[in-house]
């Protein structure tokens, strides 16, 4: 598993580079800007560019992990569908590769796609083939397609001695992966860099756009490995290039390892919420937290605030997060002694007099009767916490 952990971190770094590239290179940045105005949306192609950025990052992670760990193929799941419709232009053809894509994702370098037909975005065998495939969606943006293809095929060197020294043992065939390629996509597109933090928690903006990769046990659904990458952690004032950072955690059987130290609890719990959170929850938590209720964008970012000790808990009463939002940060929280519980189930258990550990979120169990993305919604909300005593106080207040 040590090799898999390094592969997850490496995949997150490549994904972060693609996300940075889309904001830093002019041909790609202009496509993102068109999304903000709305006037250019879908004018040249049927799906917006932000979705392509999401999908491409997701497919890069799938490709790289599947290539290195064939046992994971078919068990790497993401938020996005990888199918796009080619909106215009004539049929294009490129030389066909005789072999399937080595990543095992079913991709071949066959890019003859007539206008109006479906394109499955994949990582192909060569940068040229990948660029041709992307061009079938982005036509006529050839420079953008070539920039993205180059980033997709670049090698990533971590140089992280602490990560390289991790020694673990678990079979990859027992695991599956959830990917959120760009969590907080609206903040990513908005691109605000001047949002001032409040006690260390930034209410919104580019810094809340994260890459999340989590591994869970296929049989139990329990999260065991998590990587959070912050592509927009800091911008160099001279070069204007973005610098990111990553965090990881392992919670497998009796093993608890992380790139971070467990955060110290605050005497009065600090809780971070969504701005859409209802008055009932705000009112119930007020007497417990006083003026220590903070608000932020992005489920992954709010869970990261708990991981970093900026908040003691993240409370959400609605089923508006999904498996791909929570798996990676949940694994890191478990590594640090915390966790993420299913809020409605935990409250029900308390009302029935159950004083045992509240039920944690699991990631292998689709919602019965639901369809589409809703199959993987965290129905009934969640509480992500760093310290069990704060969890108990929050459940009592709610």
TrEMBL record:
Domain of life: Eukaryota
Names of required cofactors: Mg(2+)
One protein family per Pfam: Inositol_P
Residues binding Mg(2+): 79, 180, 182-183, 325
UniProt KW keywords: Magnesium, Metal-binding
GO biological process: phosphatidylinositol phosphate biosynthetic process
Sample GO molecular function, one term: metal ion binding
Region (Disordered): 82-108
Similarity field: Belongs to the inositol monophosphatase superfamily.
Protein name according to UniProt: INPP phosphatase
Species, as recorded: Corythaixoides concolor
């Amino acid at each position: 598993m040590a090799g898999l952990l390094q592969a997850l971190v490496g995949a997150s770094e490549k994904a972060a580079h693609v996300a940075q590239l889309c904001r830093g290179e002019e041909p790609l940045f202009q496509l993102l800007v068109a999304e903000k105005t709305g006037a250019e949306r879908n004018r040249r192609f049927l799906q917006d560019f932000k979705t392509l950025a999401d999908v491409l990052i997701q497919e890069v992670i799938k490709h790289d992990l599947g290539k290195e760990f064939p046992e994971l193929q078919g068990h790497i799941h993401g938020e996005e569908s990888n199918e796009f419709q080619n909106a215009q232009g004539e049929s294009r053809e490129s030389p066909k590769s005789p072999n399937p894509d080595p990543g095992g994702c079913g991709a071949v370098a066959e890019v003859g796609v007539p206008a109006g037909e479906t394109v499955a975005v994949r990582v192909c065998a060569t940068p040229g083939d990948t660029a041709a495939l992307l061009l079938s969606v982005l036509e006529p943006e050839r420079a953008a397609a070539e920039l993205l293809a180059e980033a997709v095929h670049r090698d990533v060197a971590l140089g992280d001695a602490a990560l390289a020294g991790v020694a673990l043992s678990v079979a990859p065939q027992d695991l599956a992966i959830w990917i959120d390629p760009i969590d907080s996509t609206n903040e990513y597109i908005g691109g605000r860099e001047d949002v001032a933090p409040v006690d260390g928690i930034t209410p919104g903006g580019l810094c809340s756009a994260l890459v999340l990769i989590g591994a869970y046990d296929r049989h139990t659904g329990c999260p065991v490995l998590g990587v959070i990458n912050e592509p927009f952690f800091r911008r160099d004032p001279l070069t204007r290039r973005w610098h990111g950072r990553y965090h990881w955690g392992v919670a497998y059987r009796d093993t608890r390892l992380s790139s971070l130290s467990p955060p110290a609890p605050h005497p009065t719990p600090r809780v971070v919420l969504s701005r859409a959170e209802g008055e009932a929850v705000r009112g119930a938590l007020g007497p417990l937290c006083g003026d220590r209720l903070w608000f932020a964008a992005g489920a992954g970012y709010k869970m990261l605030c708990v991981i970093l000790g900026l908040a003691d808990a993240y409370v959400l009463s609605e089923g508006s997060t999904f498996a791909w939002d929570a798996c990676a940060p949940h694994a890191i929280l478990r590594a640090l002694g915390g966790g993420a519980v299913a809020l409605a189930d935990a409250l029900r258990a308390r009302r029935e007099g159950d004083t045992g550990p509240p039920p944690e979120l699991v990631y292998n169990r689709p919602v019965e009767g639901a369809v589409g993305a809703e199959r993987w919604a965290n129905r009934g909300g969640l509480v992500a916490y760093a310290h069990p005593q704060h969890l108990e106080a929050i459940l009592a207040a709610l």
